[in-house]
Amino acid sequence: MNIYLIRHTLPDVLPGICYGHADLGVADSFAAELQTLQAKLAHITNPVLVSSPLRRCFILAESLAQYFDTPVVNKDVRLMELNFGDWELKSWADIPQGVVSEWSDAHIKQAPPNGESYVELYARAKAFLEELVFKPHEHVLVFTHAGVIRALVAEISGMPLTAAANIEVDYGSVTHVVVENGVTRLERIND
After folding, report:
1. How far is CA 135 from CA 140, 155, 179, in A?
2. d(CA 147, CA 163)
3. Is the entire prediction scored with pTM above 0.85?
4. 15: buried, middle or exposed (CB in 10 Å: 19+, 13-18, 0-12)?
């Protein structure tokens, strides 16, 4: 099985805004970013598509479904980005910096107010992957977010979650995971 973890394209949000579960649309650059992704994925035939239900992922998934002539995009809430709770759609500059610093130092286990911790995100992402690897699919396109991709790369590579934040995951990037003979491995990251 080939699993392609695809980060959504540039979202429609101002720089410096905290967002995770916020349901943002896509930026004006979407058409160009879509063409770039189509070229990266052109070698794939008959993929299964699974998406975070958030619009910035689902719009991309539906657009690529048309490209692949795939009628169904499955939604899975486990693929959503980290829930920043009370910080959603606030400027990072407007959140008390002492609180942000405290959270940054312990974000793996500590959640923003009314949000979720990275351990919680990791648990749902891992559950998604564990379920997916037993499906009989040849190619799966997974439309998700940087936090989920980092968590899955950490899981597959055996990396500690504390190091996952250092994994670069660009907008519109593809991370290729191969599952073969019961072994899951990373083929490419942030392509």
Report:
1. 10, 19, 11
2. 12
3. yes
4. exposed
Q: What's the CA angle centered on 23, arms 22 and 27, to 5 degrees?
A: 110
Per-residue pLDDT, averaged over 84-102, amounts to 90
Output the pLDDT for position 55: 98
Residue of 25, 22, 23 lying closest to 115 (CA atoms): 22
Beta strand 183-188 with 139-144: parallel, antiparallel or unpaired?
unpaired
Residue 12 φ/ψ, nearest 5 degrees: -85, 85
pLDDT in tens, 159-180: 999 899 899 999 999 999 999 9
Q: What is the pLDDT of residues 108-159, one digit of tens each?
A: 888 999 999 999 999 999 999 999 999 999 999 999 999 999 999 999 999 9
At 155, list the tokens: 């899981």
Pairing of strands 174-180, 183-188: antiparallel
Residue 174 confidence (pLDDT): 98
Q: Cα separation of 24 and 7, whole Å?
A: 14
